[in-house]
Amino acid sequence: METFIGKPIKRREDARFLKGAGKYTDDIKLMGMTHSAFVRSPYAHAKILSIDTAAAEKAEGVVAVYTGSDACGTFGVPCGWQVDFKNGETMREPLHPLLAKDKILHVGEAVAIVIAETLELARDAAELVQVSYEALPAVTCPKKAMEAGAPKVHDQWEDNAAFDWCIGNDRTEVEAALESAHHVTEMTYKNHRLAPNAIEPRSYISDYDVNADKWTLYTSTQNPHLIRLLLCAFVLGIPEHKVRVLSYDVGGGFGSKIYHYTEEALLTWVSKEIGRPVKWTSDRTEAFLTDAHGRDHIVHSKMGFDEDGKIVAHLTDEYCAMGAYLSTFAPAVPTYLHGTLFQGVYTTPLIHLNVVAPFTHTVAVDAYRGAGRPEATYLLERIISKAAKEMDIDPAELRYKNFIPPFNGTSEPGFQTQVALQYDSGNYHGVLKRGLEMLGYEDFRKEQAEARKNGKLIGVGISTYIEGCGIAPSAVVGSLGARAGLYEVGHVRVQPTGKVSVFTGAHSHGQGHETVFAQFVADKLGIHMDDVDIVHGDTDQVAFGMGTYGSRSLAVGGSAIIKSVEKVLEKGAKIAAHKLEAAESDLEYAEGKWTVKGTDKSISFGDVSLTAYVPHDYPEGVEPGLDFSSFYDPTNFTYPFGTHIAVVEVDPDTGKVDLQRFVACDDVGNVMNPMIVDGQIHGGVVQGVGQALLEEVIYDGEGQMVTGSYMDYAMPRADDVPNIETDRTTTPCPHNPLGVKGAGEAGAIGSTPAVVNAVVDALSHLGVTDIQMPVTPKRVWKAMQTQA
Amino acid sequence: MIPAKFDYIKASSVSEAIGLLEKHGDDAKLLSGGHSLIPAMKLRLSRPEVLIDIGGISGLNSISEDGNEIVIGANCTHADIVNSDRINSDLNILAQTAKHIGDIQVRNRGTIGGSLAHADPAADYPAVVLACDAKIEVEGKGGKRTIPATEFFLGIFTTALAEDEIITAIRFPKVANGNYQKFFQSASRFAVVGVAAVKDGDSVKVGVTGVSGTPYRATAVENAYSGSSDAASHAVDGIDDLMSDHFADEEYRAHLAKVMVKKALEA
Fold it and tell me: Mind telling me which PROSITE patterns this protein's record contains (chain B) (predicted)?
């Protein structure tokens, strides 16, 4: 009997993607559909003095023009997470209006929407809207935003802080330990801002049906149910059952499509006003200006060590930009998705992190692949490598000294961190050992010593990361300020013929759910995966769901499906026992049939399914049908970990970094489809390399985005990245049925510090101790000049 | 990413195109490969009312030999240049350069005439036409004339072309010993610095793009050169308008210019 778990099954969805036959929102054309274009602010901070829409309203093909003075101007999109001040003051939460009415708070903020018969006419008419602004000074740097006299983003509060939060041990205790430490390593740097760059830009169509008094919202999102909930209950006040949200194929998100955006709500409002469907698809410029960005932390950190190189304390202060408004997950990112990972893979006994999160005159920052964990990992892995150099200890050795010893989370308890979480299972020694073997670390050090004699600059960088995935236990995140529970729904509908439809609240935007979910459902039911279909992205078909982010789909969404599969088998056994005239306890289920133990009497899954729907000869007290839905709320996060190692060569003349090797040994728990896990790691690594070497969103002093196109924002390309050498160890997750941990973000979390560590290592003999990311040729060359 | 409204006229001859340019004046733009113009129009940074498409004019896309010179039609694409045996053997430096422009799609559409007329300060060809002492053949209502490369580039996006003039061809001497060295801008893959060097015994001609708003001949390098690459230290002598952006500020750009000139002299 063919089984599927653990096999590199090719992705079902790729057939349509490779043929250009995917069904993305912008591909959808509805009868009578109108198109829209936004008028967006060219200023980062300005008063709106007047808006004149007369000419646009009279322009050819224009259906309507709306501004913040219309009824839509009273609505705002909410934030989904509340992080209060450590002194007890409530998080400062401004209205995030669908259209700016009086004041502009970032470049690209929408002031008007023009609806027209075609996109071209909408764009032409949008140019006729006359807006008069009075420009005001802007602040884009989170640290400067907290300086006295900084321009204020929201006038109603005394300063720009959205909140000021801390986690870990008592600060004075940590400071005292640093004071008496044998060695203290210190770092100040910026974890710079990134644009998410999904290949499919955001796209929405809202279609109001006046006869049914119902809306259909087609949206390119990572979580259709959450969008519906926020849109209905928190923005427009529409009863939730009146809205169907559909998101068919979604071309990447990296976090940027989790959030409920103003355009989604505005189009929904507009569709009812005009009584016709209306579409908006972001262009690339709008994507740079209005998709939620990632990172943007300014960090000052100290780590103390004893004479044996054991970490004794870690103290960090950060300024983390929120942007002009609070996006859906934004407050959680630099706090509960970040500070809770400050333990890393080390036994550090004392940890304290303080985060000041200011508003800035920029687009909002929110979760971007890894969301808070890449920032935590970058800090820990850079500072420990810097400390190793300062103390003249090999960076691998210093990590071994400080690792949490292996634990499986079942016979050995989970590891309780100083920062709220309890790790599930881990073997950090194992991944580092394997990573170093894959690289040939000792040989490399010899090669490096030789190379230096010849003036060649080569370096190796290690990163040993941990991350929190499988987001998230509802009670835990509820206590931390989440305004939602983060369980998942899995519905298994066995058809009369024994074919299976699975409905999941997870949502694929490139992960391959249609393949992977079918693999494990098929194995658990003992049927072929061709007989299992996966349905997602439709709020009318799927009962509920929290969507896909935080590497949660398999660990949480998969577990919900498993629960329903178990219910199917449980009921199936009752039907089988009746048909086989045997006691349920005498049956065993294997290879798609129930067999009376020790006999050749059996009944197949298909026959039981048919019986369930044609219940002529049927057990008493059992309902017909074979159809179960389950909610799965995890008991803990999952904690994947791994070792990433980069080898670079730096051109001494130009400072250009050539990434020569990249080794990744990851532990994501059990693996359902190794090809897809490799693909996720590859993609994540390239994104992390992009942050290390190339990508950066830059705003100038006036709040203008300098890097608003691919001519100025450098994305990694195939020739920037070597072959990625991957391997895995397997430490199953002890608390979910598949033993899986999640692989979607690991690559982006582990890789960035490995690359920067390698560059600094290549230049360490010249006295270089740190280089600000991205380590562009200019920055590397300048670092070399400073030291020379 | 939708341009403002424009009219489109396909010219079938150079004289027709010149007539159209005369008629529409400032409102018109010539369209060749469109790989600089169309993106600017899509962002509505450029909004000509009339596009005069010269891409279909016959006779502007040949590569021929004229005595000791190679004459390249203005409509030749970068791919035509990369794939030309004649250029690969007798003007190899130009094939090397064209290979580094954009990607396959860009090379299949973008043209040498369009690129030179556009005069992007980070484009590759200017360095080579300067180092080779190429001549730009143009035609306008006053007839034909030839502009030496050294007199062609006047500033950022500014050339010696009159408003009614069209580049018809570029005339290169055959070059035996030339090479182009490029330091790529990591996002656009234009040149942060591009240096073309044409060597002839103990003398050298060096063209530099990307460094100044106007591509230039590094005459200080040429004067100091006597076979050693030490002359590269003069790469930015006399240049007082070094470009600066987040990839390369003036200091780093000046350094890169010296490094790339050195590489070109040593190659």
Answer: FAD_PCMH (PS51387)
Decide if A68 contacts A101 (C-beta within 8 A). Answer: yes
Name the residue facing A653 among B5, B248, B259 (closest C-beta).
B259
Question: Do the domains spanning A14-136+199-252+257-290 and A487-632 agree at the CATH topology level?
Answer: no
In chain A the first and final C-alpha atoms are separated, in Å, by 67
pLDDT at A579: 98
* Residues of A in Cβ contact (< 8 Å) with B250: none
Please state, rounded to an integer, the average pLDDT across all residues of chain B.
96
**For the domain A14-136+199-252+257-290, what is the CATH code?**
3.90.1170.50
CATH of domain A375-471+637-787: 3.30.365.10
Q: Is A283 on the interface with B (CB under 8 A)?
A: yes
Are A285 and B249 within 8 A, CB to CB? no
Q: List the structure tokens of A7.
A: 């096999």
Q: Retrieve residue B81's tokens.
A: 């240049």
CB A109 within 8 A of CB A324: yes
* Cβ-count burial A688-705 (b if 16+ within 10 Å, e if not): bbbbbbbbbbebeeebeb
DSSP string over A725-768: EEEE-----TTSTT-B---TTHHHHHHHHHHHHHHHHHHGGGT-
Hey, are the CB atoms on B248 and A706 less than 8 Å from each other?
no
Distance CA A326, CA A81 (A): 9
Domain A487-632 is found in CATH 3.40.50.300 = no
Task: Output the pLDDT for position A788.
Answer: 59
Domain annotation for chain B: domains and CATH numbers: 7-53 (3.30.43.10), 63-173 (3.30.465.10), 178-266 (3.30.390.50)
Annotated domain spans of chain A: 14-136+199-252+257-290, 375-471+637-787, 487-632
Cβ of residue B45 closer than 8 Å to a chain A Cβ: no
Q: Is the pLDDT of residue B238 over 80?
A: yes
Q: Which of A695, A720, A778 to mutate to test the interface with B (most CBs of B within 10 A)?
A: A778
Helices and strands counted in chain A (H then E): 18, 28
Encode pLDDT of B159-212 as tens digits.
Answer: 999 999 999 999 999 999 999 999 999 999 999 999 999 999 899 999 999 999
Burial A579-592 (b: 16+ CB within 10 A, else e): bbebeeeebebeeb
SS3 B140: strand
Q: Is the peptide bond before A358 cis (omega within 30 degrees of 0)?
A: no
Kind and range of the H or E run holding B260: helix B250-266
Nearest to A193 by CA among A260, A259, A140, A255: A140
pLDDT-derived band at B229, boundaries 50, 70, 90: very high
What ipTM was assigned to the predicted interfaces of this complex? 0.96
What pLDDT, in 10s, does the model give residues A89-108?
Answer: 999 999 999 999 999 999 99
Query: Contact, B245 vs B187, CB < 8 A?
Result: no
Does residue B1 register a pLDDT over 80? no
Closest CA to B265 of B215, B234, B225, B210: B225
Name the burial class of residue A483, with classes exposed (0-12), middle (13-18) and buried (19+) by CB atoms within 10 angstroms of its CB: middle
Q: What average pLDDT does the segment B142-156 reach? A: 97
Q: Is the pLDDT of residue A481 over 90?
A: no
Asked if B244 is an interface residue toward chain A (Cβ–Cβ < 8 A), one would say: no
What confidence tens digit (pLDDT) does each residue in A121-175 have? 999 999 999 999 999 999 999 999 999 999 999 999 999 999 999 999 999 999 9
Token pair in block for residue A379: 């800090």
Q: Find which of B2, B190, B249 to mutate to test the A interface (most A CBs within 10 Å of its CB).
A: B2
Decide if A283 and B256 are in contact by the 8 Å CB cutoff: no
Q: What is the arithmetic mean of pLDDT over B239-255?
A: 97
Of B93, B126, B120, the residue nearest B200 (C-alpha): B93
